[in-house]
Please model this.
Amino acid sequence: MSKIFSLLLVVIFFSISSCVSFKKVAYFRNLPDSATVSRLAMPPFASPVIKSDDLLNINIQSLDPSISQLINSANVVMPALGASSAYVSNQTQLVSGYLVDKNGEIEIPFLGKIKLEGLTSIEAREYIKNGLSKYIKDPIVSVRFVNFKITVLGEVARPSTYLIPSEKISLLDAISLAGDLTIYGKRDNVMLVRAREGYNDVIRLNLNSKDILTSPYFYLQPNDLVYVEPNRAKIANSDGRQFRYLGIVTSILSIVLVFLIRVLK
Model:
């Protein structure tokens, strides 16, 4: 009987080692498991600022439709290569806007070249509105980023580059757009790559911890890249070892079953 128990222990060992731990799968697992309310401070949010190579959709409305059409027609239409809508995946999107040049400027009718680099979309709207007020009575101006995109790669259901219709998206929103992490995704070591001037910041984030909800990196910035690494189970699966383990476990179970049948006869 001791041999049977030894074989069963081996089977249990392989079975346990092939399973993905619940603790590694659940998000925010250090939050209290009770009906009490856990109140966490909101993470900081900074509105994105305009940079060179940004594409801005600038829409002007005035009492004279011809003037509005003149200004709005200056938005250049181009395909957003490699990007998908936040709501529709895997389709090339057409976008239109004013391209911010290397000097941080755009050229707009009536105002000529104006520098918008370093301004938020709200600040740019007020700046353009004040300038146009000299030529147009009571202009209504809207400015928004057309190329606000984020990329999600790795162990997610739908890895892609996504165009964001608003200026505020969290890490969890981005993961949701990508169809959530697969069972093979490392939830405790998600990589965020954020481009700076001349270098990249690489940040490691733990989705298993509630601290992600208050992290200064909870909200994403334009052109952020989120990469979800594969866990050991995925690596084992890719190497074929998981199938070898399954064969070993099956063989052992078969031996145990035959042995038990003979002993119990």
